[in-house]
Design goal:
143 residues; alpha+beta; 5 strands; elongated; transmembrane helix; RseC; SoxR reducing system protein RseC
Length: 143
């Protein structure tokens, strides 16, 4: 996936860029930015030595985008569903009153989902160090 951005600062071989939102962003409700005028700033690999103020094209590999989406959405969802199923089974094993089986399984599901998010959070530094999840500047658009 490629997007246009403006370099706002540099630090070594990294650059902080401000992503230029397209008109499609205003109509999309996929993220919390929606039609608001919030700015998206990210650190990217600056192998082309872009300078502050230049308009650049940044890229993140599709495989990385799909992997990140899987990590942030699918793993917690599966953990929640697994927790609900295990909670129902465990409630039967513990002979929990039938009126409390569903709330117990809901709480178990929420616990499993929370543990999944905690595992993701604890591994965040490792994900940040991985070049797979790092966006990079691929082209300087204005010279």
């Amino acid at each position: 996936m490629r997007e246009k951005a403006i370099v706002v600062s540099k630090k070594g071989n990294k650059a902080e860029v401000e992503v230029i939102r397209t008109s499609a962003c205003a109509k999309c409700k996929a993220c919390s930015l929606g039609s608001e005028k919030k700015v998206i700033k990210v650190w990217v690999q600056n192998d082309v030595n872009a300078n502050v103020g230049q308009v650049v094209e940044i890229e993140i590999e599709n495989r990385a985008l799909i992997s990140a989406t899987f990590i942030m959405y699918v793993i917690p969802l599966v953990s929640f569903l697994l927790g609900v199923i295990l909670g129902l089974n465990f409630a039967n094993t513990l002979n929990i009153n039938i009126a409390w089986e569903e709330p117990f399984s809901l709480l178990t599901g929420l616990l499993f989902m929370s543990l999944a998010f905690l595992a993701i959070y604890l591994n965040n530094k490792r994900f940040e160090k991985s070049r797979m999840f790092t966006s990079r500047i691929v082209n300087i658009l204005d010279e």
